[in-house]
Design brief:
Number of strands: 12
Pfam family, one: NMT1_2
Subcellular location: Cell inner membrane; Periplasm
Protein name: Aliphatic sulfonate ABC transporter substrate-binding protein
CATH topology of the largest domain: D-Maltodextrin-Binding Protein, domain 2
Distance between the termini: 54 Å
Shape: globular
Radius of gyration: 21 Å
Oligomer: single chain
InterPro entries: ABC_SsuA_sub-bd (IPR010067), NrtA/CpmA_ABC-bd_dom (IPR044527)
Family: Belongs to the bacterial solute-binding protein SsuA/TauA family.
Order of helices and strands: HEEHHEHEHEEEHEHEHEEHHHHEHH
CATH class of the largest domain: Alpha Beta
Largest sheet: 7 strands, mixed
Length: 382
């Protein structure tokens, strides 16, 4: 346990922080930074039996706790189990745009991804490239600050606050919160009453440690890593949303793949839904499984002082929470980072509704009605 008092404990604290300073940046660089596609190195083999309408389905996700459904679903073989003879091939990404590019290029069929790149990908292709088919995670975003410099929310004026990337989901959320506080910030440069410093999650810890920033609006596990470095949580973004829930990660699919292989899409969704139930039933075992997946994918596991609080702040869910996505898109428009966009048709929740009904699970809220699925002739990819 980290504490600031007592001789022997203080010594252990220094050692713990030294370990964090040397190990965590490597993990954060691989798990949460911005880079290129990384093929997974240990995917489960297809199960005996005939494949579905395609021999192989390719999924993408981040080696990040907010993608816990994919981490655990792959690690435990829960998604492969639903696919039977269709082989699951996985690729991991460290940036939403590169994952969208892979989906558009046809090298990924189904992906776990955040709201901002999804909206951008949908808008830039005129709604032709992708559909959101399920939720995956809510929460896991915090404003953490140097407690010596910032003690209240009003103290942020004049300070330097890090966000991961210009226009990403957390950057938009912070810009909107700053605007609602009445402060002026130029969205492109980050200059204004509060300085927004786009550092990337892999750089944020060093920036905080050296005093280059006074705090950060960051997703997990970066937020908890900064707390382990001495920062304090000033605000949990969940507190800003009605009911405390907002979409952090959802599941998208190539529109073409959805039209050609609806049976495979439903099998992956069934694996996702059953993985979320498995996580909910045994959180400790699921947390260990997710950390084992991180170690396999990045070469480093998260230490308990980072893993435990980060895991506790993320909720897995099947609900895509479309109202919160539309609100996030509106925030980006108001910040000048997104042109006014019509998101009608971005969801196709019909397959998810069928999976939930067949499994005897509670349906989604009444306002999240299924939309029609593309009716293209199925052409198996062999």
């Amino acid at each position: 346990m980290l504490t600031a008092t007592g001789g022997p404990t203080r010594s252990r604290t220094r050692l713990s922080r030294l370990a964090l300073a040397t190990v965590l940046p490597l993990l954060l660089s691989a798990a949460c930074g911005y880079g290129s596609e990384r093929p997974s190195d240990a995917v489960p083999a297809a199960l005996p039996g005939d494949p579905l309408s395609v021999d192989e389905v390719r999924i993408g996700y981040f080696p990040n706790l907010s993608h816990a459904t994919a981490l655990v679903g792959v690690e435990e073989g829960l998604i492969q189990r639903e696919l039977g003879g269709t082989r699951l091939r996985t690729s991991t990404f460290t940036a939403g745009p590169s994952e969208i590019e892979a989906l558009n290029a046809g090298s990924v069929d189904i992906a776990w991804i955040g709201p901002s790149p999804t909206v951008n990908g949908y808008v830039r292709t005129g709604g032709n490239a992708l559909r959101i088919i399920a939720g995956s995670a809510s929460g896991g975003v915090k404003l953490v600050v140097d407690p010596e410099k910032i003690k209240t929310l009003d103290d942020l004026e004049g300070k330097r606050i890090a966000t991961p990337q210009l226009g990403n989901t957390q950057d938009v959320a912070f810009l909107n919160w700053v605007s609602e506080k009445g402060w002026k910030v130029d969205a492109q440069s980050g200059k204004g009453d509060v300085s927004v410093v786009r550092t990337g999650t892999k750089v944020a810890p060093d920036a905080y440690r050296t005093g280059a920033v006074d705090g950060a609006w960051m997703p997990e596990p970066t937020a908890s890593y900064l707390v382990a470095e001495g920062a304090s949580v000033l605000l949990d973004e969940s507190d800003l949303w009605p009911g405390g829930s907002f979409v952090t990660t959802h599941v998208i699919v190539s529109r073409t793949f959805l039209g050609e292989h609806p049976d495979v899409v439903e099998a992956v969704l069934r694996g996702s839904v059953r993985t979320n139930a498995w996580i909910a039933a045994d959180g400790d075992r699921a947390k260990a499984s997710a950390n084992a997946a991180l170690k396999r994918l990045t070469g480093r596991a998260l230490p308990p002082e980072v893993l435990d609080p980060a895991w506790a702040s993320i909720e897995v869910t099947n609900d895509p929470m479309p109202a919160t996505l539309r609100t996030q898109a509106d925030h980006a428009v108001r910040a000048g980072l997104l042109e006014e966009a019509d998101l009608t048709g971005i969801y196709d929740l019909g397959p998810l509704h069928r999976v939930l009904r067949q499994d005897g699970r509670p349906p989604l809220p009444a306002d999240e009605q299924p939309l029609p699925t593309d009716t293209r002739q199925t052409t198996p990819r062999r």
